[in-house]
Automatic annotation (TrEMBL), chain A:
Listed name of the protein: DUF1468 domain-containing protein
Residue intervals passing through the bilayer: 49-66, 96-113, 119-136, 143-165
InterPro entries with a match to the protein in the record: DUF1468
Alphabetically ordered keywords of this record: Membrane, Transmembrane, Transmembrane helix
Organismal lineage: Bacteria, Pseudomonadati, Pseudomonadota, Alphaproteobacteria, Rhodobacterales
Annotated DUF1468 domain residues: 17-166
Signal peptide from the UniProt entry: none
Domain of life of the native organism: Bacteria
Organism: Roseovarius nubinhibens
């Protein structure tokens, strides 16, 4: 991806976001009393100004992307698997995207599980799945950490800090 | 209250084992956090924040300041040993530190990094003590229009210098300001982007946003590319830094510290430009300039002095004006807020004991940094060898517990996950996250001061130009924008500033 393309995409996204905010978002999601004496004091004023400025920034990015010479930015992010720095042997961008998708699913599942299973058990599952996404095999040390870390954190937050950690509906911890 | 009274009040507040223990533990956490490739000082401070909820304000803030100081030095350890700076500011340390390590002088480079860091840290702390009170007494006369122009100037400079492009920085800051509008309106109490959800009425939780922006993207990056941050640590070697080395580099250390103090006190500049400028000045003035870049110990000293000289100075605008100068100080603002404190000029009137307690703690932190740093240099291999597949899942779980603990609310955990993806996408699209976070914190303050000014003037914008101070900040904002545009045009033509690399060194924070 070149810097030109990147800047263009950003600009278009910002411009679209600004238009959506001005046309739909602010009129529908920001409420203001009818008796505001001056427009600058209205709850609508600040979001509208920011939306206009976002649109201008987007426009600026689009204009500057036209002037750009199109320098490749592939080496900008060496952490990216598609940038030449391979994480594991045989790793492809498709694998990387699949891992990211799995991470997104994990986050959604964790949000769903936490009130039902409890934070400690969910955290153990989350730990193991994240570790699996980083290396295909789970050594004993990782397994021990996956059990110990959530338990130690539970002990600190529940018993030292006095936080009511969600316990779930099945197994409750002391 | 006289200076002596204030000092005594501060001493009474921090003169206990708990406060000094927190400071020492903080420095240790910071050094380890900064030294682990893939972690960063910012992440270490963010992850420590939830543990301060149950502490007294001064203990909690000292813990975080310890992490900050330790993290800045800790970043230089992987920079020298594995050529992977733990913080962007340690990039300049790589230039001479790694060649020294290749020559078997890693121990000498690290020792000099530590000595220079502690000296610069001390000078920076003294500058903070000297200037913060003076600036705060000046800022006591600020009214809403002055505060509005000050915050606008701070946001402009932060947006302009945080990334590679003013427009991307501005876009990031605007998104942060927009996100800050979520919740009930400050004056009328009407809903803004709450979608009828009571969880959103108080606005988005600051801790969830900051941990989401600065910790979760690191985990996602590691999932994206599990091989990142791998490196082979060099051995320390037999040579150690001597007093003669220190004396030879002393001028560069003091000069670098001064550069750090000056640049650190301007919101948004940060430690990386300071480290490079200090390095470039040392190279220009040194009789051994030809050795720079090939393993010159004075180069390491200058880079580290410039880097650490910023650490105390960034607290000047924070304590005196309530404006965080960088991301870490923005997180520290969060700690103040959690404990019901609002940094700014009024704190020098209402909470002078806390201010002086912090000053005393900061001075002591330089000593702790020296002690902890000496041990950390020898123990780096232990932390460098922590498997990534244990470290990052543990960080994820710590984030979940920490964010939940703020309000006992699972909704905040969801916000953190969502912000993590926003932060990851911003990194992929080269949009700096720092303006986003600082704008998110300063957004309500900016709007509040703007609307108060409008209420005072009956809606007339003339009040924003009504005093010499507002004119001063408008002029600074204009100069900043012009300078950033000029620098952008020069960069587009391929010119670089002397001493600065054409392309930044990749760091674990990038």
């Amino acid at each position: 991806m070149t810097d030109k393309v990147l800047q263009m995409r950003l600009g278009i996204t910002a411009l679209l976001a600004a238009i959506i905010l001005l046309v739909y978002g602010i009129p529908n999601w920001v409420s203001a009393p009818s008796n505001v004496p001056k427009i600058v004091l209205s709850p609508l004023f600040w979001p509208e100004v920011l939306a206009w400025l976002t649109g201008l920034a987007g426009l600026g990015l689009i204009l500057f992307s036209w002037r750009d010479k199109g320098v490749a930015t592939e080496d900008r992010d060496p952490a990216a698997p598609d940038s030449g720095a391979r994480g594991r042997s045989g790793d492809t961008p498709r694998h990387a995207y699949l891992r990211l998708a799995a991470m997104a699913v994990l986050m959604i599942v964790m949000m769903w599980l936490m009130p039902r299973l409890g934070m400690v058990w969910t955290a153990m599952i989350g730990f193991l799945v994240t570790a699996l996404l980083m290396q295909p095999r789970i050594p004993i040390s990782t397994l021990v950490a996956a059990i110990a870390v959530p338990l130690v954190l539970y002990a600190f937050f529940a018993h030292v800090a006095g936080v009511a950690i969600p316990q779930g509906q099945f197994v409750r911890l002391p | 209250m006289s200076f002596l009274d204030s000092l005594m009040a501060g001493l009474a507040l921090v003169g206990n084992v708990e406060a000094f223990l927190a400071l020492g533990i903080g420095v240790a956490i910071g050094v380890v956090g900064g030294a682990i490739p893939g972690m960063s000082a910012t992440m270490a401070v963010a992850l420590t924040l939830p543990f301060t909820f149950t502490m007294t304000p001064i203990t909690g803030i000292l813990l975080l300041l310890g992490v900050y100081k330790g993290g800045i030095f800790g970043g230089s350890i992987p920079a020298i040993l594995i050529k992977t700076p733990g913080t962007p500011a340690s990039s300049a340390t790589v230039l001479d530190g790694y060649p020294m390590a290749e020559k078997g002088e890693a121990g000498r480079a690290l020792g000099m990094a530590l000595w220079a860091s502690c000296t610069a840290d001390l000078i920076s702390n003294l500058a903070l003590i000297l200037f913060a009170g003076w600036l705060a007494s000046f800022a006591l006369s600020f009214r809403p229009p002055e505060f509005f122009t000050l915050i606008l100037f701070s946001l402009t400079i932060i947006a302009g210098v945080s990334g590679n492009s003013l427009l991307r920085g501005a876009l990031s800051a605007l998104l942060g300001l927009l996100l800050a509008t979520v919740g009930l309106d400050l004056i009328y109490g009407t809903n803004r982007f709450t979608f009828g959800d009571p969880n959103l009425m108080g606005g988005l939780n600051f801790i969830a946003v900051l941990i989401g922006l600065f910790a979760i993207p690191e985990i996602l990056s590691m999932v994206w590319n599990p091989g990142a941050h791998d490196g082979q640590a060099r051995s320390l070697g037999k040579n150690w830094v001597t007093f003669a080395d220190y004396r030879k580099s002393f001028k560069s250390i003091v000069r670098g510290s001064m550069i750090g103090v000056f640049l650190g006190s301007i919101p948004g500049i940060g430690a990386a430009p300071s480290a490079f400028l200090s390095y470039s000045e040392a190279r220009r003035k040194s009789p051994d300039r030809d050795n720079f870049g090939k393993g010159e110990v004075e180069g390491v000293a200058a880079a580290e002095a410039g880097n650490n000289g910023v650490a105390g100075a960034t607290l000047i605008p924070l304590l005196a004006l309530g404006v965080p100068g960088d991301v870490i100080t923005a997180i520290i603002v969060g700690a103040f807020m959690i404990h019901g404190l609002q940094p700014g000029p009024m704190m020098f009137v209402m909470n002078v004991d806390i201010i002086y307690g912090l000053f005393i703690g900061l001075i002591v932190s330089s000593v702790f940094l020296f002690l902890v740093g000496s041990v950390a240099i020898r123990g780096f291999r232990l932390v460098a060898d922590i498997p990534r597949a244990v470290l990052f899942p543990a960080v994820l779980i710590l984030c979940v517990y920490g964010v939940y603990a703020v309000n006992n609310n699972l909704f905040d955990v969801g916000v953190m996950f969502a912000m993590g993806w926003v932060g990851f996408m911003m990194a992929r699209y080269d949009v700096p996250a720092a303006p986003f976070l600082i704008a998110f914190i300063l957004g309500p303050l900016l709007e509040d001061n703007f609307r108060q000014a409008m209420l005072m003037s009956g809606g007339s914008p003339a009040i924003l130009f009504s005093s010499p101070i507002t004119w001063f900040f408008w002029a600074l904002t204009g100069i900043t924008v012009a300078a950033i545009i000029r620098a952008g045009l020069r960069a587009a033509r391929g010119e670089t500033l002397p001493g600065l690399p054409a392309k930044p060194v990749q760091t674990s924070e990038d």
